[in-house]
Amino acid sequence: MTMGKLHKEIGQLIVQSAEDPEKSDSQVIQDIALKTKEIFTNLAPFSEVSGDGGKRVLNLEALKQKRFPPATENFLYHLAAAEQMLKL
């Protein structure tokens, strides 16, 4: 698995936040939570509400049409899987 731009951004955020002596553990967690929310906001246009319970699920075709770099597409797909956003 190769690292894409998104992976590097997340890694840099975690390292910079964790290395900052002025930040507490809870502030580091808040930084990571904020980045996670940003990623989910960017993933939202590629998801739709499912008919069974109103849960959001990834529309894989919409994600593929965006033509992200392969590493980013793979990361977003696996993120959706980890968050149980895949319709099986």
TrEMBL record:
Stated family: Belongs to the DENND10 family.
Domain of life: Eukaryota
Record-linked InterPro entries: FAM45, Tripartite_DENN
Keywords recorded for this protein, A-Z: Endosome, Guanine-nucleotide releasing factor
Location relative to the cell: Late endosome
Organism listed in the record: Urocitellus parryii (Arctic ground squirrel)
Protein name: UDENN domain-containing protein
Record's GO cellular component terms: late endosome
GO biological process: protein transport; regulation of early endosome to late endosome transport
Main localization, broad class: other
